[in-house]
Design brief:
The protein is α+β, with helices and mostly antiparallel strands. It is built from 21 helices and 28 strands. Strands 1-28-27-26 form a four-stranded antiparallel beta sheet, with no helix packed on it. It has a four-stranded antiparallel beta sheet with strand order 2-3-4-5, with no helix packed on it. A hairpin with a 2-residue loop joins strand 26 and strand 27.
Length: 938
Amino acid sequence: MTMKIPRWFLPALAIFAAYAGATAAAPAEAARTSDGVPLMESSSFRLHAMPSLRDRVYGAHAGEAGGALVSVGGVLSIPETGLDPTGLEFAPRARWLEPLPPLTQRQRGWNRILRSLGRDPAPPEDTREWRSAAIGTPVAFGASASGGDFFYVVGGISSDGMTDRVVRYSFQELIELHAEEEEPEAEDLLDPQVYETLVTETLPPLPEPLALAGAAVMGNRLYVAGGIRSLDGEPSNRLYRLDLATALDPVAPGESAWETIDMPYASGVVLPTLTVRRDEVAIADALFLLGGLVQAGEGWAPAGEGWKYLPPWESHAGWSPLREAPASAVLTESLPVGPSHVVLAGKRRTGGPLSLAEALRPPGDNADVVLKAYHTFTDRWAALPWPELAVGEPRLVRTGRDFLFSGYDPGTGELAFRRGELTHSERHFSMWDYFAMLVYLGVLIAIGRYFARKEAGTEFFFLGGRRIPWWAAGLSIYATGVSAISFMAIPAKTYATDWLYFIGQAVFPTFTVLIAAFYFIPLLRRLEITTVMEYFDLRFGRGVRYLMSAVAVLGQVAGRMSITLLLPSLALTAVTGMDLFLCILLMGILATIYTVMGGISAVIWTDVLQVVVLFGGALLSFVIILMNVDGGFGQMMDLAVENNKFNLVDLRLDLTTATMWVMLLWAVADVFGKGLGQEGLQRAFSTKDVRSARRAMITVVVVALPASFLFYGIGTALFAFYSANPERLNPTLQTDGIFPLFIAQQLPIGIAGLVVSGLFAASMSTLDTAMNSVSAIVTRDFYSAFRKGATEREQMKLARWITVACGVLGTGIALWMASFENLGSLWDMFSIILGLIGGGLGGVGALALLTTRANQAGTLLGAVVTAVFILWIRFYTDIHFFIYGTLSLFCGFAAGYLFSLLFPAKPIEELDGLTLWTGKSGVDPEESDGSPDSRGRG
């Protein structure tokens, strides 16, 4: 069967492209601050009142401990000259404000409804009160950091001068027990009353006294950077590191528990900020050292240079320079925001060099406060509008999800705190975008209804009557394997990193598909089976069939379905403003409806439609991105080369990161993991014969390679676009939503709705495939096997109920995952789940196809050993998740084969047609028409 292109298609495509190019939204000229930094006008902080502190203190240490806001020490007046503590009055207390009680389920649900309607929920009433406790040695102008349930105060200035003390603050519950009166019941004998008290611990002192330094907790280590070594202002160019796990262990006399690391500042830096951000290239946390002051003649000037630091045990270890910060502001506070931004606060610089006393003096009014945003992926700076607030020291603190701002009320002199929420207002869908989405999604339902009328039993529901055209089956296999993962996660990963995954994700899988097409398909298609697990039954026995069926169901429901529901829902939330949980529910319900109605035929033909829409939308988006980058394709290439975005190969002998060898090992597992995957083979089984099944697999290769170039190219183009337009970024958006953000911002009205709806349909194609596959596995491999006399009507009824159950369960898991604040890269999570679960299938498949000696008992024992082994690898090694599947494959194959030697082997004649070495006697796979074989399967 050949596919004919209608005569009207090319003219219609030309008109569509002309309209899209003419109406594409070019980015408006960005508003800029006085220092030329683009202003993020779409982002702002919404503030809510909090209890104020009556004391007016300066140089206090503010942070979080166990979710509570903590303020320690400080002085009651700013020193006019120098930092001599003589005459300064130190605040002798620590104060804390307990966290707000969590919202109830009803409150959270009501807030989601209000947000979906475009209304802001009212903040809960804040009736908390500040509590306080005396501290042993009052201190000010030290470094502070929060980590876990602890708050650290490092160094500073006390009444005795500079100090090297390091104090850790935390909260401990004290329980007083009171006897009940009048003969209480036994279980009510004691009535506990819980009190929280502030607990202090002294950690090993710094190698030298420091003040005005920066500090951060990364992992289980405390870092302290820069600062002054003496009251004369001698700057430090050292980074100190303390292992908190062994901090209280005794050290030898004369030694320090702190490690010393040289910083790249020639003469040191004072008042720097340290922020921990994820480095997507190294796949590890990194320290970002930004802001602060450096010596300039007799005074101090803003430090323009910034640096990123990765510890020596991580890849790409050491110091890397960052883009120079704006020189018009003294930036002394920082907070991580979203997945990739650092927000810095400070005051505007006026005139020439400053003294340290001038640098410590708070701004005079709101106009003097500066709020900058640094983006770690594009290495670009932008400005944020400062919220209206009584100004003192511009402090930024974060507790839980809240951003806390502090300033002084000039009238009352109180230290005022505001609980802030960073919001982003962007162009959302128009009426025409929603109309395009409704029409598109309506077509999907119509396809399901159409094939529901043609339904003729489970053979049609699971295999389309084995009459699906090979090219449609091939496009469906491609759509199922990539869909939203390609459309969202690959451009996002390339935008954030480089092309390092390209060979492993695009080139190596080509050979996997070709091996399956020329070796696996002829053998399996000839057996006239519905599921791969039926083959395991023929090869080994029922035990292996049941085990692999359970593993496959777990992988589909717990991994593939939930993540591919969550990905596009994040995008829909970003571009339409709809509630995330509502989006997940709508998509899960819609996909379940048309899958229940039309079975595999509806699944395949909706896949064909979404491939066309996705390719068209992706190509159009790529062109529009380049149109909006000054210099077009050439500028994109220059930026990519300058930032090493085309890195393809990493030849280091390292199994903890995505090197070439890790990719190669992953591809080995893919040969048996994806090559024997139920989703792809079920479509191959739905074609009329072996030749058609093979052509379907080859179609995947023809489509996948150019598609991979396109999706990776989009990621690089997005990097170029947002490097040129950093103010267009949404700091609160997860990285995986970067491409849908561009679609909403820049694609023409109506076209954006069509492309995004194609994205949802692509994700639903993976969801519907998983539901249909699980339904086939449960019906064929469990129900039919246990109930031999089940009628066709009973099987169809069960198949539909299983489809509904899968839809409900997958949607529920996606809703649960959506409740987490930051999931990191969903593509990485997707790969981890597939590696942990899918590798077992590959090991059993390799034993089945490549050996004649393996048997059921040995294979089952090997599977148990493999499960224990791969869990140990996951939790007790740093091996990269890309090779989980390969290690599982090798372990399963080796252990299964060795255990099989302990048990009798099947007679070789019983393996006829079941391994690559025992081909079906007298049958040429190329000439097979798919008729029932001697086993009576039809």
